[in-house]
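Q: My labmate handed me this sequence with no annotations at all. I'd like to see what the chain might look like in three dimensions before we decide whether it's worth expressing. Could you predict it?
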Amino acid sequence: MRDNDERDRYLPNKKLEKDKLFVEIPAETKTPYPEKVPSGYDPIQSIKLEGRAFSGLAGGRIPWWVLITGWVIFGGLALLSLGLAIPSGFLASLPLLLVNGIPIAILWRGTAAKLSGARNQKNRR
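A: Here is what I predict for the chain of 125 residues:
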């Protein structure tokens, strides 16, 4: 009997009309900890910005024109400097090979991710 009393206290009308029923839909909730976009003026925040850009590039979440432009600018510059450094000797150009390998690896990962995403989208259709 106690359960019925509790229910009646919160829901006194057992017969509710459908016209009086309504549902409130809450507004879109914002995350309690929004991600702040680094400014780029501070050296550490500049590194964070570059990391975000390179992770987007390597993840394939960018348009094709950005990827092709990245290959032309960064990949072309890296391949050009590698072409100039290799004839000078292997040990002397080893640090340059390692540094220039980073943008090429990032662009390669981005291209592979973009192509695999294009294949997955074709398979979905």
